[in-house]
Amino acid sequence: MKKINYIFLTLLSIYGSAACISCSRKNSVSAERTKEVIVYTYDSFMGEWGPGVQIAKDFETATGFKVTYVNCGDGAQILSKALLEKESPRSDVLLGLDNNLIDKARSEKILAEYKPKNADNIIPEGLHKALGKDWLLTPYDYSQFALIYDTQSDVPAPESLEDLTKPEYAKKVILMDPRTSTPGLGFLAWTLAVFGDGYARYWKALKPSILTMSPGWSAGYGLFTAGEAPLVISYMTSPAYHVYAEKTTRYKALVFAEGHVQQVEGAGITRGALNGKGARAFMDYLISDAAQNVIPLTQWMVPADKNITLPDCYKKVVPEDAKTLSYNTEKVSAAVNNIMNILGN
Question: Residue 87 domain-assigned?
Fold first, then answer.
């Protein structure tokens, strides 16, 4: 009996020591993380010319928290990475999910609800509702999707989505993959909003017109500006960049009478985030005047803060008369595999 007790006490001592070491390591990691906010986002947000760099710098000055961005590629890839890490999350904030991804994020319970300070006073009700009645995601910018047209091309500007299926647009359109890209998913949503249950017929007719489906917006838009094709799916606000940075109106957002769908981008706190305090501070800062004023000339989207005045470059090229279409976001997710099968991908 004494021998058994000795063995038991020895084992207890060993496991107890191991537990203390594990606990000490956990506390050490937590201590390191108390001043770091890990944000999963996409390439154009955290890139050299995006808003992320300035926002991180100003946020650290204002709060003492350091921001570490992790480039996940594009919005849909942010969601995929968060789902893979669901049981042991590494991120504190997911930045770049939108109104087409929120249903999946909500059903998978990867976000923690948080309403940033002053949100009611600056965020229009319509933007908030686009992401749901809860505060799993907080809007930080938005824009309608549009086809951007190179006015120096040798093909006429299309006047509708149906026009894109005409022979003169063969290999003339750059799209993004809806499995990885929010603009890609947005274009799919647009076809559903316009064609309803006939969207599959449309995609079959559209297939010859597609030059490529890039994995993300940055790659696709880069091909467009390099002259690979005269049409690309992007945002109604995109030409403002070219006016501001390149002093040109060469690139035009086409307004279709049938209407457009709108993207509302949001950020949310990861459920189980290691630095919840820092995450909440980042969310508060993201919709502050300081951060929202960075958005127009770096993100090239409309800030969520209704009180921000847009620069003159927006007024010159961004249409104000484009109709916004409604659609069923659940049908968008269900249609992804269908259209990829149609395209043979």
Answer: yes
Which CATH number does the domain housing residue 245 bear?
Answer: 3.40.190.10
| Confidence (pLDDT) at 21 | 35
Structurally, how many domains does the chain consist of? 2
Same domain? 159 vs 297? no
Burial class (CB in 10 A: 0-12, 13-18, 19+), 326: exposed
Taken as a whole, the chain contains a residue count of 345
Q: Which structural domain range is residue 246 located in?
A: 143-262+317-343
Instruction: Please check whether residue 241 lies inside any domain of the structure.
Output: yes
Summarised one tens digit per residue, pLDDT across range 242-255 is: 999 999 999 999 99
Alpha-carbon dihedral sign for residues 296, 224, 172, 182: negative
- pLDDT tens for residues 43-54? 999 999 999 999
Pairing of strands 210-214, 173-176: parallel
Chain mean pLDDT for the chain: 91
Instruction: Return the structure tokens found at 192.
Output: 């559903």
